[in-house]
Amino acid sequence: MYKKKGLSHGKVGLPIGRSKDDSNMLEALQLYEGKNYKKSLKILDTILKKNSSHVDSIILKGLNLQFCSTPEEAASYIDKALSKIKGTLVSPIGGHLLGIYYRQVKNYSDAVKWFKAALENGSTNTQIYRDLATLQSQIHDFKGALESRKKYWENYRGYRANWTSLAIAQDLNGRTQDAINTLSTFEELAEGKLGEPEMYENNECIMYKNDLLYKKAGNDKESLERVLEHLEKISDDVYDRYGWLERKASILMKLGRSKEASIVYRTLIKRSPDNFRYYRLLEVSLGIQGNEKLRKALYEKLAIFYPKSEPPKFIPLTFLKDKVELTAKLNDYIITQLNRGVPATFNNIKPLYKKEGIPDIVESIVLPYYAELSSTDQPIQFVWTTYFLALHYLHRKQFEQANAYADKAMNHTPTLVEVYILKSRVLKHLGLLEEASEVIDKGRELDLQDRFINAKTVKYMLRADKIDEATKIVSLFTKNDQSPNGVPDLHLLEASWFIIEQAESFFRLYKKSCKELIGLKNKDITALTVDEIESHGKLLKELEFNVNKFEGLSLKRYMAIPKIYKQFEDDQLDFHSYCMRKGTPRAYVNMLEWGNHLYTLPMFIRAMEGASRIIFGRFDSLQLTASVEQEHDDSSIKKKTNKKAKKEAAALNKKKEEEKAKYLAYLDDKDPFGETLLNDPNPLELFENQFLKLYLSQTTDDTRRHLLEFEFHLRTGKLALALGALTKYVKLNGKDSVAASMALVLLENTKDSYPHDVIAKKVAIKGIEKEFPDLLSESGDKVQFVTCTYGKTLPSLLILYHHSSESIPEPEIKEDIISVLDNEDPVVQHSILEYEF
């Protein structure tokens, strides 16, 4: 970092004529750089004993302590140092050390602030610019990153990585031509001087330059000609032939040179004959998308050239209109694969089921073929055709037939793992989750070394809420060095699928326990004996314990997901410098684009929606937990002696301690049951900081979960924002039943009985009047008006059910939900009846 000699002096730098404390501090600094933290601390303690206000020493001590795994003590020293600093007036060394500290604790904004302070206060350590640029890129301060990259580049022009990083920074700031010029200048300087080791980096950089030229050209034909000329010029130096050919074809298409583009696409097909995209683009380049005859002729020829490739055989099935011809082609396609015993035959044709009439045609082809098969003479064809038919009927939601064919396949070949997966899948759709888990476990036992079937079994076990069995099975493939099961390892491995499945399972167990507890609390105990009352009270305590335990564990697992995704975001930090050193600018830009959608990925959204059910439920006090936390007024239970009560409490605490290891998510977890999360005084703030802010920062109006946003703002009392979510939903989906239910709930919240701001209520009413004027003018039963006018759908009725009130009666809504459930799959019926009511 800094050497003893040549230490820079700035506005608040060290005075000329270094003091003994400063010299000792520099010695401690060298020890810190050598990772001799304890020796460094020893010197710093000596300095601070004599001069407790030596700011640089205080900062360095905090940094040493941070690396000694005492973060709380480290933070106290950093805070102490900051209290002695006015604004950012700190020595160059102090500013640099503070920047390193905040980078270490992942407070990147403050790290940027102090690295800047070090430079502004006279630091001559130009390496800071590189670290600063990395951190600015991490927080998406690309304007600042450009300035830092340029400063660093000015001092170290001899490294191509610095030219590349400067060009990328210019590109990210919209200065495409500057980026092109930067890359071109280095190419001119390095011409004829590159060795073999640098050629891969060169290939990436020149293709990145072509990306920039292509982006800048837009649809201007002259510019595109120059891009094409550049592409041809670099052809011999480019290793990425797919990228090169795809770019050439794109340019030719934009230039209107479709025939030449078609030749390029044929070249790409020759290189990758199973890539469906190339075939589609070939059609576009030939201009035959709307001509069935020419398309058919094209694919007949391509099928001859590439007899083993799928696209030439499959794509005609998507556009043929003549039923006889389509049936013949489909017959060849399906029967050929079934004769070969291809397990994926159904998955190959499943996209075609969107076309009307295709499922019936498939049945007319496969059933006669199946009838002629011999289960003994043609065992492979028989079992895989049976497998196909089971999947076919499952897709058509004819579950009884699907189940029958799955049984046939199992009885015929009981050693085939795939048929057990199929059978369990059918049972799942029938709502028989317990049976599904048992069947797939039998399949797992056929191949104990198969990770896929192991993971699939775990998933089904968790869906059946058999958490202990699931944990035992998944632990067969984890280390379990420091824990009795694999749960901590799976958190370390960031196995989101397992964590979320477990969270959802814990939530279902929580709902079941709530039901049992309500039933037990409502039980008449006046006629019970003293022993029965005591047993009743003991069971009540156990259920209360389970309610809190399962709810806490569910929330704990959900909250593990944003930790994982924040780690994904933090992991990008190293790549802001790594990609420059390795010369992979295109991969770097792709990573930035991926990072911009990180918090909109399906698994994060699933966790967010799951956590919202718990947090919103607690906030509304609609869940039983709120009443469980209060003291019960049951006089018969209160008659128990304090000694017995203490004994029961001790027994529950002992049980809790015994179960701690079983549910531990992290080895050093101080809140294994999620009690701290459950008892957070500001649950909505917790949800907003952990999920909603991150999600809203990256999503768009076209994809955002407007209903979730509506529910959140409704609970915060921000009715104007809730109205905004409703308006955006209507704009995207129209005035459907869900929108009408949202409007009714919002209207309900404008009543005097709700403690919301008066102005906010007026704004909400005005908005409802604009979107749903009939709802406001309706003087009768508004619920009936909404359901009759906009229809009854399960999502809309559930919104009303969760916001039931005097004006939105729960019994009537519940009755409507049950009637609507008749049209739903058994698994959906089971979920609603078991966990919503």
Mean pLDDT metric:
90
Helix fraction bin: over 70%
Q: Compute the number of helices.
A: 46
Low-confidence stretches: 1-17, 622-641
User: Biggest β-sheet: count, sense, barrel?
Assistant: none
- What proportion strand? under 5%
State the oligomer: single chain
Overall geometric form:
globular
Total number of beta strands: 0
Organism: Kluyveromyces lactis (strain ATCC 8585 / CBS 2359 / DSM 70799 / NBRC 1267 / NRRL Y-1140 / WM37)
Keywords: Repeat, TPR repeat
InterPro entries: NatA_aux_su, TPR-like_helical_dom_sf, TPR_rpt
Protein name: KLLA0F08459p
Write up what this structure looks like.
The protein is mostly helical and 837 residues long. The protein has a domain at 700-836. Helices cover 72% and strands 0% of the residues.
Secondary structure elements and pairings:
Elements (H helix, E strand, L loop, with lengths): L19 H14 L3 H14 L4 H13 L3 H13 L8 H13 L3 H13 L6 H12 L3 H14 L4 H13 L3 H15 L8 H19 L3 H13 L7 H14 L3 H14 L4 H11 L5 H14 L5 H9 L3 H18 L4 H5 L8 H14 L7 H17 L3 H14 L4 H13 L3 H12 L6 H13 L3 H8 L12 H6 L3 H26 L8 H42 L3 H8 L2 H11 L6 H19 L4 H4 L6 H4 L3 H22 L11 H4 L4 H16 L7 H11 L2 H15 L3 H12 L9 H14 L1 H5 L4 H9 L3 H9 L7 H12 L4 H10 L2
Helix pairs in contact: 1-2, 1-3, 2-3, 3-4, 3-5, 5-6, 6-7, 7-8, 8-9, 9-10, 9-30, 10-11, 11-12, 12-13, 13-14, 14-15, 16-17, 17-18, 18-20, 20-21, 21-22, 21-23, 22-23, 23-24, 24-25, 25-26, 25-28, 28-29, 28-32, 29-32, 32-37, 32-38, 38-39, 39-40, 39-41, 40-43, 40-44, 44-45
Protein name: KLLA0F08459p
Pfam family, one: NatA_aux_su
Keywords: Repeat, TPR repeat
